[in-house]
Amino acid sequence: MVDTSVIESKGKVMLLAYDQGFEHGPVDFTEKSVDPNYIMKIAQNGNFTGIVFQEGIAARYYKKESGVPLIVKLNGKTSFQGEEPLSLQLCTVKKAAELGAVGVGYTIYVGSQNEEQMMVEFSRIEDEAHERGMVVIAWMYPRGRKVAGRENDRDVVAYGARLALEMNADFVKIPYTGDPESFAWAVRAAGKTGVLAQGGKKVDWENLEEEISGAMQAGAKGIAIGRNVWQDENPDEVSKKLAEIVYK
Q1: Which residue in 239, 247, 169, 246 sits closest to 16, CA to CA?
Q2: Which residues are catalytic?
Q3: How many domains is the chain partitioned into structurally?
Q4: pLDDT tens digits along 90-147
Q5: Please, what is the angle between helix 235-247 and helix 36-45, to 10°?
Q6: Which residue from 50, 45, 25, 40 is spatially nearest to 194, judged by alpha carbons?
Q7: Domain containing residue 97: CATH number
Q8: CA 70 to CA 6: how far, in whole Å?
Q9: 27: buried, middle or exposed (CB in 10 Å: 19+, 13-18, 0-12)?
Q10: Minimal CA–CA distance to 85: which of 137, 43, 23, 28?
């Protein structure tokens, strides 16, 4: 078994995600957050147990001396794709390890007509990463006509969580279903695969607090969050408040 404690603190996980520049383009960034050095500082100051970068950002901006473990996202797509997304591998497990990563991440768009291609690729990546002793995190995002309008539904989200368990992921990042009771079912479905609640689009603190508190109450292992931290005017303060929820 892989030692997942490399991205845990007090048995919980709090990842700072910064792959949005690839997935959405610079539209998500301000003059500050467009600079990866700014994100590294937030990660260092905010009790995060890991930071998520694509290959290029990791190669040019990741600072191992920061003490923040690195997760390299291995696949990605642009925002210009249609309603049946396909995201294929762009960075190798070997390269991620050379960059100093302790783990890798990969997105599967559950419900997309292209899901099988991503599942096959993820399966190979999972084998290779685990052979190297690296943590494997599955981003399981419902997308496509089959699940349109149901991306946050209890059973759709739980299906993605179960797929992560069936495919031997150490952690799975999934959307919040709206309440602790329904999200608890997704956590149950994931079994021994740790559930990480995604942060999603920027919301006000009251809504974010409700979502993260609900996810943790439901049994989540932690969070993987980006825009709700580094888009905020006071990211260190938001990080501190999130840590109080996650680690308590």
Answers
A1: 239
A2: 141, 173
A3: 1
A4: 999 999 999 999 999 999 999 999 999 999 999 999 999 999 999 999 999 999 999 9
A5: 40
A6: 50
A7: 3.20.20.70
A8: 10
A9: exposed
A10: 23
